[in-house]
Amino acid sequence: MGLPVVAIVGRPNVGKSTLVNRLAVVRDAIVHDEPGVTRDRTYRDAFWRDRDFQVVDTGGLLFDDDSEFLPHIRQQASLALAEAKVAIFVVDGMAGLSAADEAIAQWLREQSVPVLLAVNKCESAEKGLIQAAEFWQLGLGEPFPVSGIHGNGTGDLLDQVVDRLPPTEAIEADEAIGVAIVGRPNVGKSSLLNAFVGEERAIVSSVSGTTRDTIDMLVERQDKRYRLIDTAGIRKKKNVEYGPEFFGINRAFKAIRRADVVLLVIDALDGVTEQDQKLAGRVADDGCACVVVVNKWDAVEKDSYSIYDYEKQAGDRLNFIHWAPMIFVSAHTRQRVPKILDLVDTVAEQHKRRVSTAVINEVLEEALAWHTPPTNRQGKQGKIYYGTQVATAPPAIALFVNDPKLFGDNYRRYIERQIRQSLGFAGTPIRLMWRGKKVRDMERTTANRATKV
After folding, report:
1. Over the stretch 112-131, which tens digit does the pLDDT of each residue have?
2. Residue 150: DSSP 8-state
């Protein structure tokens, strides 16, 4: 069983995300002085007293407006309430009671989840009671004056939340594989997440930039658990203004760093763009395992050679991650979508794989036999003494040589290619660390000193 869910609902710009940051363990919900910043439902881990639970932030609710994303936001809020054990209805104590609050209260009374009323923006304890008194009219019980910014009153509110949660249940401790879904705007990242989950977990729209924040979702498959992380579409830096999109893109970069595997989603109709290339470089620099997902393949006119031609052209443009497997899917029809997780399992295993020193040196010995190291103009030839793996995620192999300067880029790429051909490491970058004789002598001296001490 998963953690119990507490849904945060309310009209736009009442401070729901600010309150979520106050209640959550990690305060990273996007907060901006603009209504409609939060659109999808986003989950954050929380803890109070002896209970772990999740708070789910939802978009601002308006029942008298069907423009833009508002119908989708209402659907997301309904889905959040359907899985919640407790709902917190957030209102604005400074603005006072509004018709929109009354409409939401009426809707909440029709739901089967217990509701707590939080009157936000009550920064003063004395004035807070006066501000909260007006909201008794909603008929949802006692209004709790709180301040999402300063934390006033949140302890009393959380006491009420914990008292209404069901008894503690056993939670599986298996660690989920973190999978970040990244790409340019409107390439189908949210559609892909929904195809994995089998429900409309994220808002999907033809309007680019629909997803503003990272969206986490746990999925179980064949006794394995995956934490799927949908991210905001990443545009060129010069086109991004400071605000919700700026913060969303920063969240996307953080998601890449904390994920075990990155799904780099490419639009099959657009092909590999310059921005896709930059994202590929970012994935490689961060040392992430990666699968390239070419989405919207159902919309491409093709023959028996199309997939091979496309794979070659895309591979040439994504040479930063030449080691990443590529799969052609359609999130719309779910074609080959389940096979993505098969690739995720493979590359995640390779990302954390460790190879013995003896096996590495057998590979190096064979590579040296086929192609000896280069010789410089002074007649000095490079020598590789031995290699050993020093880290995983990504795999890092230290190569001890006489002088790293004697090994040019071409030979270094040759050694990496031989290691991949012999040992695999599909879907993950490899870090080769060329260490010279001086470095080895220093390490040996340090080790001897430590032994004497």
Report:
1. 899 999 999 998 877 888 99
2. T
